[in-house]
Amino acid sequence: MAKTILIVDDSASVRQVVGITLRGAGYDVIEGSDGAVGLSKLTGQRVHLIISDVNMPNMDGISFVKAVKQLPAYKFTPVVMLTTESQEEKKREGQQAGAKAWIVKPFQPAQLLAAVEKLVLP
């Protein structure tokens, strides 16, 4: 059975590239256009990994991760931040919120898949 990954990014082109990369590797993909939409997609189904941008309208990635970690069904779901932000302070904020990895855009599909394979829940 394919594993499910939620992609949350306000850029449709980023969601598309990440989605193509993940689907090509055999994953099922759910997409959200910002943190609030991403949160609304978490309806109790099994999600093996979440990939989120940091800078988004309505609800940014750090707030989104904090909100996800409050949901019992997703408390242990690993989160990868995929963002243009590379400042240490932002990374620390992300880690404190519960992010397990930080990938800076532009990213290489192979780099993304390597992180996904390491972190995706069994």
UniProtKB/TrEMBL annotation:
The modification 4-aspartylphosphate is found at residue 53. Keywords: Phosphoprotein. It comes from the Bacteria. The keyword Phosphoprotein applies. CDD domains: REC_CheY4-like (cd17562). GO terms for biological process: phosphorelay signal transduction system. Pfam families: Response_reg. SMART domains: REC. InterPro entries: Bact_response_regulator, CheY-like_superfamily, Sig_transdc_resp-reg_receiver. Residues 4-120 form the Response regulatory domain. This is Response regulator. It comes from Pigmentiphaga aceris.
